[in-house]
Amino acid sequence: DSMAMAALLLDLRRLHGWRLQLWHGDHGWRAESGRQARELAAWAEGQGLAITVERWDPDRAQQDKPGGCGSEAGARSWRYGCLVNAATRCGATHLLTGHTASDRAETLLLHLARGSHRRGLGSLQAERELAPGIRLVRPLLGFCRNDTAAICRALALPIWLDSSNSDPRFSRNRVRGEVLPVLEALHPGASRRLAATAERLAQESQAETELLELTLRQLIAPGVQGEQALLRPQLVTLLRANQGRLLQHWCRSRTGSVLNSRQLGLALRRIASQQPPGQLDLAAGWRLSWDRSTLRLQQH
User: Where is pLDDT greater, at 257 or 90?
Assistant: First the structure.
């Protein structure tokens, strides 16, 4: 996928005046990963492309620690952290990854199985802000993995296969190797349609965010600095589902923290009409408190 994207960008570079900088992360999980990284670097040099290769240093973290580089989540965090640093060093404004419709379909199925909210089901967006001044772009979401393989064959591109992609210890690999083939056999084109569903959910989530902000403006308590207080009586007259959406969005946008389902349910029960004043501790040192007239977000 990444090789197909690199070749397409290389062809388009002269038309748009782009300055391309490749980045490759070697997690060191496979015996052949170092050799493949060197071969990739040699190919890039032959194409006149600058490339940065970074290898995970096992001394920086415990491999078996939850969220460490030995896990899928840890590896993802390490990659994006390195990408932001690399983009900052070279002054890049856009980071492009080779995610395809196949990746998005896999992500949708995994999040659906975990019971994710619609916001999670619409992940792997085509474009979003990754860091201040840096946009993350996924230009291949209209392609399936078969399409990128065909591009590589047509352009005679070298391909370095990742043997860890068949390791059943990783949940994504099992979805890729066992679940999606069944869905494609039952309904050819399932991956594209699942990816299209994720895109619609992402657009609906963005539209809902806009409407939530408009509604919150009507609920902000007057005279409170920083918009950290809501009018409680007006909020609790709304449908419970709308109360939950507004409260969740307000907390996330003002504190950066997301209420889990237990916290949200507890908050909605305790701020209902006729309930006494109270408070609820949130993540990152924030506290939600309320009296008869207002709800407040404060750090403690």
Answer: 90
